[in-house]
């Protein structure tokens, strides 16, 4: 009999190390996140203690290479962990995974000195926080439309502008920020900088009061004549847009994996409830109207996870094909939203009450269709790639 997996090189069995990584993340989620998720959500409390425990376990800064003190995890391995954390609480998982996003510009385009200092000394040795600054009040989906300006004055850059909806902004020790160095050059006039939080002229506004993912800190950053040394520019001048797009290709599978985790939580909670709750003399899953909703949740969960795995594999193998991360991000976000809505329907009136877990899933899920590129933007990317000449 032919071993198809061996002959094609395609297989879906995790290695022993990957299985151990999943178990570690699953145990951590069960023991450290799920018991406090409701409290952190209700109080909009930042998960400092959970962050430090996750750091000690090695699931913070996973993408930092081992040369700088990290574990050098692949995007695929990050996604395995991301699903488990997302199962527990996507607000907490967003907070504790943001260092990976903020570090990506330095990992992808930083020089050796920058990597050694910002990744090694600051993020690993000092256990600091970094936030990622692209989005502005008038420039969300349109990255090229950012207004934050960086002007060269002698050996320094002077930065003015603001960023909004920045995850962990209230706690970050430094930021990776994109600004226009040549406003007349369009997408070729953008560059990336590392900016210290305690630099004169940097201020962080109050955190936003959000409908969901409330354990994730989100705030505005303002830059007023902030002087940044020229050695804090990441990559080449004018190449910031290309760097931002490359960051998205690396980060979107991880965001999608958290949506996959939320889908699995909605599915498991629905299966459990539909076995226990009876209507018309039988468990409600035996009614086709309910059973089929749960069957669709299972189908979409498995399909979403496979797309995430494909997108992560592609990035890890150096394949530049933006439509695959877009497939994964759009589908996982949309199907997670559908799963959360259907889970509330399965629970009926109880699903609308805060004492049941699916109410929180419904509030948490919507942001997946918005951040890291809206579902509409993902479709724009897909159309662009499909019809590229």
Give an overview of the whole structure.
- With 389 residues, this protein is of the alpha+beta class.
- It has three domains: 4-125, Acyl-CoA dehydrogenase/oxidase, N-terminal domain (Butyryl-Coa Dehydrogenase, subunit A, domain 1), CATH 1.10.540; 130-240, Butyryl-CoA Dehydrogenase, subunit A, domain 2 (Beta Barrel), CATH 2.40.110; 242-386, Butyryl-CoA Dehydrogenase, subunit A, domain 3 (Up-down Bundle).
- The chain contains eleven helices and ten strands.
- The strands form three sheets. Strands 1-4-5-8 form a four-stranded mixed beta sheet, covered by helices on one side. It has a four-stranded antiparallel beta sheet with strand order 2-3-7-6, with helices on one face. A two-stranded antiparallel ribbon has the order 9-10.
- The protein is globular and about 80 Å long.
- It starts with a helix and ends with a helix.
What is the N-to-C succession of helices and strands? HHHHHHEEEEEEEEHEEHHHH
Terminal Cα span: 43 Å
CATH superfamily of the largest domain: Butyryl-CoA Dehydrogenase, subunit A, domain 3
Question: Globular, elongated, flat, extended or rod-shaped: what is the shape?
Answer: globular
Backbone CA Rg: 21 Å
Mean pLDDT: 95
Using DSSP, what is the number of strands?
10
CATH class of the largest domain: Mainly Alpha
Oligomeric state as shown = single chain
Question: Nutshell version of this structure?
Answer:
This protein has 389 residues and is an alpha+beta fold.
Characteristics of this structure?
globular, 389 residues, alpha+beta, 3 domains, Butyryl-CoA Dehydrogenase, subunit A, domain 3, four-stranded mixed β-sheet, disordered N terminus, single chain, Butyryl-Coa Dehydrogenase, subunit A, domain 1, 11 helices, Butyryl-CoA Dehydrogenase, subunit A, domain 2, four-stranded antiparallel β-sheet
């Amino acid at each position: 009999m032919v071993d198809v997996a061996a002959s094609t090189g395609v297989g879906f069995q995790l290695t022993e190390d990957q299985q151990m990584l999943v178990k570690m993340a699953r145990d951590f989620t069960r023991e450290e996140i799920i018991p406090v998720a409701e409290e952190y959500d209700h109080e909009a409390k930042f998960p400092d203690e959970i962050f430090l425990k996750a750091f000690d376990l090695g699931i913070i800064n996973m993408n930092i290479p081992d040369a700088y003190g990290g574990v050098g995890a692949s995007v695929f391995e990050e996604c395995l962990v991301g699903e488990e954390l997302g199962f527990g609480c996507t607000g907490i998982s967003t907070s504790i995974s943001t260092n990976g996003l903020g570090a990506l510009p330095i990992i992808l385009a930083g020089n050796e000195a920058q990597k050694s200092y910002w990744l090694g000394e600051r993020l690993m040795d000092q256990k600091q926080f970094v936030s990622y600054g692209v989005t502005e009040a008038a420039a969300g989906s349109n990255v090229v439309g950012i207004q934050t300006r960086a002007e060269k004055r002698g050996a320094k850059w002077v930065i003015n502008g603001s960023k909004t909806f920045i995850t962990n902004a209230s706690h970050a020790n430094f930021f990776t920020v994109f600004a226009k160095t040549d406003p007349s050059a369009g997408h070729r006039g953008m560059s990336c900088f590392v900016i210290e939080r305690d630099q004169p002229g940097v201020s962080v506004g109050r955190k936003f009061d959000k409908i969901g993912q409330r354990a994730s800190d989100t705030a505005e950053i303002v830059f007023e004549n902030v002087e940044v040394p020229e050695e804090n520019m990441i990559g080449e001048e004018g190449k910031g847009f290309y760097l931002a797009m490359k960051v998205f290709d690396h980060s979107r599978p991880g965001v999608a994996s958290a949506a996959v985790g939320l889908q699995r939580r909605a599915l498991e909670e629905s299966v459990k409830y539909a076995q226990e709750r009876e209507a018309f003399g039988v468990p409600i899953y035996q009614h086709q109207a309910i059973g089929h909703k749960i069957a669709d949740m299972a189908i979409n969960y498995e399909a979403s996870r496979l797309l995430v795995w494909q997108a992560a594999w592609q990035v890890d193998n150096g394949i530049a094909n933006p439509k695959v991360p877009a497939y994964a991000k759009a589908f996982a976000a949309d199907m997670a939203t559908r799963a959360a809505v259907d889970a509330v329907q399965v629970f009926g009136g109880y699903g609308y009450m805060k004492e049941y877990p699916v109410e929180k899933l419904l509030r948490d899920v919507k942001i997946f269709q918005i951040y890291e590129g809206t579902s509409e933007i993902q479709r724009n990317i897909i159309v662009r790639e499909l019809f590229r000449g």
